[in-house]
Each structure stands twice: as structure tokens, then as C-alpha cells.
Amino acid sequence: MRVLLVSGNREDIQIRVPALGLACIATATERAGHDVRMLDLMAATDPQSSVIQAIEDFNPQIIGVSVRNIDDQRMSGTRFLLEQARETVAWCRKASGSPIVLGGAGFSILPGPVLDYVDADMGVQGEGEVVFPELLRRLEAGVSLNELPNFYERGRASTPRRSFPKDLDALPLPDPSLLAAALAGAHDAPVPVQTRRGCPLSCSYCSTPTIEGKSVRRRSPETVVAWMSRWVEEGFRDFYFVDNTFNLPPSYSASLCSKIAASGMDISWRCILFPGGIDGRLIEMLAQAGCKEVSLGFESGSTRMLNGMKKSYTLQEVRNAADLLRRNHIRAMGFLLLGGPGETRESVRESLAFAESLDLDSLKITIGVRIYPHTEVALQAAREGLITGEQDLLFPRFYVAKGLENWLQETVLNCLSNKDNWTV
Questions:
Q1: How many CB atoms within 10 Å of residue 185?
Q2: 139 CB contacts (<8 Å, ≥6 apart)?
Q3: pLDDT digits (tens, 9 = 90+) for 59-85
Q4: pLDDT score of 13
Q5: Please, are residues 124 and 103 in contact by the beta-carbon 8 Å criterion?
Q6: Pick from 273, 246, 274: which is nearest to 260 by CA?
Q7: What is the DSSP string of 173-197?
């Protein structure tokens, strides 16, 4: 089949992130014998014309549209990004009568409501490298789509069973040519690298288990380094490991760092660290492998709030991690998430004072917790009558503990007034 895959994201929310997931699906679909074209609207000067021209030139038999984000997760001045996906689908409808299939993290959080809102025909929740080619096979053969895991269809009421590929090395990684154009010209555009999928943690607010599942699956360090070397050969030197917890499990992280260092690649990279259980040897290995910056999402400086968020690390472990990063000359960017269930003025002040004591290179503060389905925060919001169901969460809804609404915003902005390296 002729398959057009479109990444509808056109926003650089923090850094330029090209459509790695869609490129993986394009590669898997091509390997299954289909004729595939990929269009990343991040690189398009006129997105609508680009979509229509691609359809006219290629005449696809099926169109896939990737939905990266529902919104920008900012309570103040929220940007509802799902409108971009709706526009993209409308442009496709204007130029083609072929079925439209959704995918991506944004779709996977709320598959049914998103499918209805953007007016697409079908969707694949979670990882699509196996399911999407199987969907094409069944459509070509004219056989039933029943029992297809992770698959949604307009008008079908049943919820499909979830399925997660166990062997990530069996899934192909895309050629750099599929992503390079989206990186060109951006101020901050590292090559995204995903080594793991799934998260074993149970943080009260997080949507990752809904998207990727709780079982951690890994690519072999050899596969990861070989793919990075292909980018280096093309002249790229800056990488970003997008794994939610780069250091879990620690043995895998140590092996990966060892392989990167042994490769001799002249690169720099950044990652996201889980603050618990970090030791000096691992941080030394990160530095030796080229790590220059770490995101340290400790979220709160209150032990009570950390417990409420279901965090399995202590404030002392956060302090230890920050100290080790500083000693090894790795920039540390901290993250605070304020206003969740149980938050008080006292715990906010604790968090701000704790963050200041860490002497981080930068700090990002999020005010209000985006409510996602299937989370403890969503259950609490429902108990308090703030939401009534999944449909309520399609449009951004945020949790802020009662009594903190105006005070929290004012306090944080006042704190930022004399700190150049703190932002909201």
C-alpha cells in the first residue's frame, strides 16, 4: 500500500524534538513491504500546502497522523495543541478520501475522545511498529480488524487489549535522513534517542504508564551506540536521551555509558535522571561518556508531598545527586511541580527553599498539575467534583490545592523576580 505518515506537531515547546516515533513506524512499515512517505510539518513553512501537495504527488491509500501533545501542560495561558492535529486531518480530508489513522503519545493518553475530536477514522494506542503494519495487512486482505490490539475505530465501543513489544532490538531504528530536516535551523535541536520503553514507577500524576506500560523494555547498548554512530557520521554531535528515567535500571545505564565511551564518538548529550539511588561511579561514567546536562525532576522539597506523589526517593538522595553532578561538571536542571493534592503554603515554602539550597544551574517550576486519566490525581479530582470523566480531560484541566489558587502564582513569581536561572 501507499502510506503517507504525517507528524502534525508544529511546536517547539522547550526544545526541537523531531518525530522519532513516527520515523520508527515509517521504517517498520517500509520493512513490511509498503511504499512509505513521511512528512514532518515541523520543517514546513506552509503546513497546509505541504500536506495537500504530498497527497496530490503520492496519492496515498492510507494516511497516518501523529499526535504528540494534547496541550503544553501550562496552567497559565494554556495552549491547546490538539487543534493542530484537527487541522492536519481536515487538510487530509480535503485532498483525499483515504482512511486516516491516528497515533502518538497525545492520542494514546485519551484515544476515544481524541479520535472523535479530530475526526479521524482509526487509531493505534501506544507503540505502532507491530500493530500498524498488521492493520495494513488486514485492510489489504479484507479481513476482520477485530481482536487487533491497541486499535481504535470510530463507532466501535469496545476497548482493545493492550500489547507491548518485548524485544525492542527487533524493531528497526530509522535512518537519520528521515529526521534530519526537522532538526535543521533550530537553536536547540539535539538528536532524540530512546533506549527504553515503559516505566515501573507509579507517580500520582504521570501519563507514561498509560502510553508505554509499566514493564521496562530495553534496546541493547550495542544497538543504541550503533544507531548514534550513524548520526555522528552525518555530522551530528548533540543527543538527548528521551527516556523518562535514564538511570533505571542502573546496571543498564552503566553498560550503555561504557559502550558510548568505548566508541570514541566525540559527542555531548543530556538525559533525565531519577533522583534515587544515584552513586558517584555512575555519574562519573555519565561524564566520561559525554553527558553535559541532566534534568533532575525531584518535583518537591517536602517529604510529605513526595510521599503523596508516590515518589520513592528522599530529599537527601536528591541533594546527593545534585552534589555529584556539580562535582563532575554536569549541568543540573531541576524541576518542581507545585499545587497538587495535599499541597499547603508551608510545603510550597519548603520546596522553594530546598530548591534554592541545591545550587542548581537552572530550575523549572510548574504551577498546577495537569490531570491525566488513570492517575491518582484524576481520582482525587473526581472525588472533589472537579472532573466527571475522561471527556472532561480532553481539554486541559489542572489540579491546584484549595486555598492556593492565587497565592501560589504570586509567591512563585515573586520568588523568580531575583533569580535569573529560575523559570515557569
A1: 9
A2: 1, 62, 99, 145
A3: 999 999 999 999 999 999 999 999 999
A4: 61
A5: yes
A6: 246
A7: PPPGGGTHHHHTT-SS-PEEE--EE
Q: Are 161 and 173 in contact, with CB atoms under 8 Å apart?
A: no
Q: How many CA atoms lie within 13 A of 78 on its CB side?
A: 20
Bridge partners (DSSP) listed for residue 299: 336
Q: Which residues of 127-154 are buried (b: 16+ CB within 10 A; e: fewer)?
A: bbbbbbbbbbeebeeeeeeeebebbbbe
The angle formed by the CA atoms of residues 132, 23 and 297, to the nearest 5 degrees, is 105
Per-residue DSSP letter, 172: P
Rounded to whole angstroms, how far apart are CA atoms 399 and 411? 17
- Which residue's entry shows cell 566520561? 288
Are 415 and 352 a contacting pair, CB within 8 Å? yes
At position 146, the amino acid (one-letter code) is: N
- The string of DSSP letters for 143-165 reads ---TT-TTEEETT--SPPPP---
Distance between CA atoms of 305 and 338, rounded to whole angstroms? 9
What distances in angstroms separate CA 343 from CA 135, 149, 372, 379, one per listed residue? 46, 39, 18, 16
Percent helix, percent strand, percent coil in the chain, to nearest 5? 40, 20, 40
Rounded to two decimals, what is the model's pTM?
A: 0.94
* DSSP assignment of 56-123: HHH--SEEEEE---SB---STT--BTHHHHHHHHHHHHHH--S-EEEESHHHHHSHHHHHHHHT-SEE
Cell numbers given for 166: 518485548
Q: Tell me the C-alpha distance between 294 and 298, whole Å.
A: 12
Task: Calculate Rg over the CA atoms of the chain.
Answer: 22
Q: Please state the rounded mean pLDDT for residues 144-171.
A: 94
- Taking residues 336-353, report their average pLDDT: 98
Say whether 242 sits in a helix, a strand or coil: coil
Band of residue 14 on the pLDDT scale cut at 50, 70, 90? low
Burial of 266 (0-12, 13-18, 19+ CB in 10 A): exposed
Helix (H) or strand (E) holding 305: helix 303-308
